[in-house]
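Posted in: Protein Modeling Q&A

I'm a second-year student putting together a small comparison for a lab meeting, and my supervisor asked me to include a predicted structure for Putative NADPH-quinone reductase. I've never done this before, so apologies if this is the wrong subforum. The sequence is pasted below exactly as I got it from our records. If anyone can share the structure token output, I'd also love a short note on what stands out.
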Amino acid sequence: MTPKRIFVLNGHPASASLSKMLAEKYVDAATRAGHDIRVLHLHDLDFDPDFENAGYSVVKPLEPDLETVQQDIDWSEHIVLLTPMWWGGVPAKLKGLIDRILLPGAAFDTRKTTRLGLPMPMLGGRTARVIMTSDTPNWFFRLVHKNAMVRQLRGQVFAFVGIKPTRVTHLSAASQPKPATVAAWSRKVADLGAGGA
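Accepted answer (user: helix_wrangler)
Welcome! Here is the predicted structure, written out as tokens:
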């Protein structure tokens, strides 16, 4: 197995969370398998999540922590995002991070277009894994909500800037999981880390 440069972002805003624990399991297994790892936790990042402006003509300067996130994305071959699903989407601070760092000239080029007329992606050559926790059962999320958050992250965020494929691991009934369930999830995430997946 060829080692990968993997950027792991724990997108949970709390300092202690299931997402953080799983991120640590992934990082530990990936490091032991020889992958080159960079990891950031959303709760450690200091930035204003409010994009504020209606367009891209005026963009406020990036805080140092956001510059670090951009540098880690540029460095990476594979990105792992761990996030809970809250009210059908990602936490507000994580959405703010996405708004602030995926900018023209860094993530996509509005001066060039694809065959579909979309801005040209600038972050190609990378893959991604989303490890998503929720209370919503997987079957209900797929049948009733049509995988809405997965489609948003996979298609409207990662693929839009050229990161693909994005594979998704959905761990549901996450608020009060039994210890055996958490142990099984931990093993599953560690296996992904060891494989650089």
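A couple of things worth pointing out for your meeting: The chain has one domain: 5-195. Helices lie at 18-32, 64-75, 92-101, 138-143, 148-158, 179-195.
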